[in-house]
Backbone:
């Protein structure tokens, strides 16, 4: 079974992410398969646009194949991770600069690398069942795939909040924030995809099937702006002392995450706001290469994805003990 199915239908290059047993977690074969299809179709006059969908009802793409990268680190293979990330980030840049409409349809979970192969596209369609997140700080890693570019540009410090906490957002949130371009009710999404593959003009399809979702966000944007504008992470945590449901939840979230990841993530988001996508990807590659060799990565992936005990033992345990000079030179 091919982990990426690619064919031309009705003048549309159709990529189907097809690793459902792993929730379409991107492995090297998937990255190579998507890249090969995009390279083949770039200058093919018979292909007018690209449509990317999932064979799994549970996930568009649950992220990168982080368990395999952890295993490589544990086995002493220190080249596998950087090589994987370099290939993945190059694919993300290819998508961002693709000369033809690149249409991603997100009907379920899209985490981490799943955003890399969707958010950089020109048309990003979500349904009410879509769930988006960059949850890397929970596994001792950092948000990557160009997220320091697209999250740092969100209003009201929302990108900083999403990057640090890994908070999941809805499809309507994604449209309101500009991470998605269109909202299609799930009851119509199969017809939308069928019409695209039938060669119907994409603007006609979008007009026919997409609607305007609620602009009310699923989180307290005003509270996010007030708290996440603070200068440092310690200041953010201090600002969460107020006794509201959102502040309690957010403070609890941050307390469970890798201090090293939080510090490095905050630095990436701060630098990303004034950088190009390529600069962000290069910076993320340097930081990713560094952090997967740190103890929190193997421990975080173990706790969340391998043993699933959700009880990581971070080293160091608190933000005040993190040495920012360990990664500042990488920025």
Residues:
């Amino acid at each position: 079974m091919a982990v990426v199915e690619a064919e031309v239908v009705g003048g549309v290059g159709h990529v189907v992410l097809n690793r459902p047993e792993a929730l379409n977690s991107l492995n090297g074969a998937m990255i190579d398969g998507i890249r090969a299809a995009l390279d083949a179709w770039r200058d093919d006059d018979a292909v007018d646009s690209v449509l990317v969908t999932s064979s799994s009802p549970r996930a568009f793409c649950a992220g990168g194949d982080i368990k395999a990268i952890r295993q490589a680190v544990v086995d002493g293979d220190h080249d596998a991770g950087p090589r994987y990330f370099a290939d993945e980030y190059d694919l993300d840049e290819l998508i961002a600069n693709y000369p033809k409409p690149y249409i991603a349809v997100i009907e379920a979970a899209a985490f981490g690398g799943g955003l890399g192969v969707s958010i950089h596209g020109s048309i990003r369609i979500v349904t009410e069942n879509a769930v988006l997140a960059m949850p890397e700080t929970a596994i001792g890693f950092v948000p990557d795939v160009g997220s320091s570019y697209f999250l740092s540009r969100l209003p009201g410090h929302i990108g900083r909040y999403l990057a640090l906490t890994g908070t999941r957002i809805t499809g309507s949130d994604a449209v309101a924030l500009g991470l998605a371009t269109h909202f299609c009710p799930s009851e119509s999404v199969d017809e939308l995809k069928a019409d695209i593959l039938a060669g119907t003009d994409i603007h006609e399809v979008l007009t026919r099937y997409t609607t305007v979702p609620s602009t009310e966000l699923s989180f307290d944007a005003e509270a996010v702006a007030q708290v996440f504008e603070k200068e440092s992470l310690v200041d953010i945590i201090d600002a969460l002392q107020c006794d509201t449901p959102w502040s309690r939840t957010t403070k609890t979230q941050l307390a469970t995450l890798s201090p090293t990841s939080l510090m490095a993530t905050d630095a990436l988001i701060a630098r990303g706001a004034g950088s190009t996508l390529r600069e962000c990807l290069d910076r993320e590659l340097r930081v990713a290469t560094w952090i997967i060799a740190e103890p929190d990565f193997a421990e975080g992936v173990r706790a969340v994805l391998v043993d699933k005990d959700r009880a990581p033992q971070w080293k160091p345990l608190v933000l005040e003990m993190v040495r920012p000079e360990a990664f500042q030179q990488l920025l």
The two ends are 41 Å apart (CA to CA). The chain has a mean pLDDT of 97.
